[in-house]
Amino acid sequence: MPNQVPGRAASVPKAGRNLPVAIGVGLALLAALAVGLLWAPWFFVLISAAALSLAVVEIHQALLRKDMHAQVRCIVAGTLISVLGAYAMFRWQLGLAPTTFAVICVGGTVLACLVARLLLQGPEGFIRDIAASALIIAYIPLMGIFIPLMMVESHGTRRIIVVVVCVVASDTGAYAVGSLLGRHKMAPRVSPSKTWEGFAGSIVTAAIIGAVAVVWCLGAPWWLGLILGLCIAPAATLGDLVESLIKRDVGIKDMSNFLPGHGGVMDRLDSMLAAVPVGWLVLHLSLGG
């Protein structure tokens, strides 16, 4: 049995996580999100923009392990401008529809990356590096822009809450059912702990919680929440698997140490990034803007 450093066994579990720090960071994040969603929507958008920007940096650092050099400064700037600007367009009625502004920003970010790579470096590795930039743009700001787009619609913060609750229900259901009944591996080479039984649990839990959440938060029919949960659970699972696949490909456990005790920002955003566009679409088609 390996030797243990006295005094550390209680605070650092076998997985290497500092439990008190992880709990403290988790509670701080929860408090910040609660303040933003319940009382200060602009603060929630600001937190979202900051988190997405850190996620861009994390993916960039991961791709560097594959010698793929994205134009990270351009992408961070584009992410901040698109997320904050889309909300500002609605909040202060600046002339452009938030959706139009978001599309312009994402397209502009692609062009900025092309120009920056063209001017700053030679032809060697151009395709590889632009592919890295395109991957990050599609993965982070293009998916994340649906956060402010959902916020600017009627009862926007409540819609966000419903989607977040469905994602949490999906993760909880997958963990609970998978731990108790999981036998058949879903993707053993990507995420050995995920099972088809856990996936079924995530769908059922998200659908039930979604049905309750839309009635309580939005005053919408229960069946809409059922559909929402049925759509969000697979999206959240996909988001988790995609991030796991990236980490396995580059050979890392956590995306970064930006969040002590939790790993990287992407380790917390992975499910949400894929679920928010799906949640926006379902609610937009059903309830309008």
TrEMBL record:
<keyword id="KW-1133">Transmembrane helix</keyword>
<keyword id="KW-0444">Lipid biosynthesis</keyword>
<feature type="transmembrane region" description="Helical">
    <location>
        <begin position="132"/>
        <end position="152"/>
    </location>
</feature>
<comment type="pathway">
    <text>Phospholipid metabolism; CDP-diacylglycerol biosynthesis; CDP-diacylglycerol from sn-glycerol 3-phosphate: step 3/3.</text>
</comment>
<keyword id="KW-0548">Nucleotidyltransferase</keyword>
<comment type="similarity">
    <text>Belongs to the CDS family.</text>
</comment>
<feature type="transmembrane region" description="Helical">
    <location>
        <begin position="96"/>
        <end position="120"/>
    </location>
</feature>
<feature type="transmembrane region" description="Helical">
    <location>
        <begin position="21"/>
        <end position="39"/>
    </location>
</feature>
<feature type="transmembrane region" description="Helical">
    <location>
        <begin position="70"/>
        <end position="90"/>
    </location>
</feature>
<feature type="transmembrane region" description="Helical">
    <location>
        <begin position="45"/>
        <end position="63"/>
    </location>
</feature>
<keyword id="KW-0808">Transferase</keyword>
<comment type="pathway">
    <text>Lipid metabolism.</text>
</comment>
<keyword id="KW-1208">Phospholipid metabolism</keyword>
<feature type="transmembrane region" description="Helical">
    <location>
        <begin position="222"/>
        <end position="246"/>
    </location>
</feature>
<keyword id="KW-0472">Membrane</keyword>
<keyword id="KW-0594">Phospholipid biosynthesis</keyword>
<dbReference type="GO" id="GO:0004605">
    <property type="term" value="F:phosphatidate cytidylyltransferase activity"/>
</dbReference>
<dbReference type="Pfam" id="PF01148">
    <property type="entry name" value="CTP_transf_1"/>
</dbReference>
<dbReference type="InterPro" id="IPR000374">
    <property type="entry name" value="PC_trans"/>
</dbReference>
<keyword id="KW-0812">Transmembrane</keyword>
<keyword id="KW-0443">Lipid metabolism</keyword>
<keyword id="KW-1003">Cell membrane</keyword>
<feature type="transmembrane region" description="Helical">
    <location>
        <begin position="198"/>
        <end position="216"/>
    </location>
</feature>
<feature type="transmembrane region" description="Helical">
    <location>
        <begin position="158"/>
        <end position="177"/>
    </location>
</feature>
<protein>
    <recommendedName>
        <fullName>Phosphatidate cytidylyltransferase</fullName>
        <ecNumber>2.7.7.41</ecNumber>
    </recommendedName>
</protein>
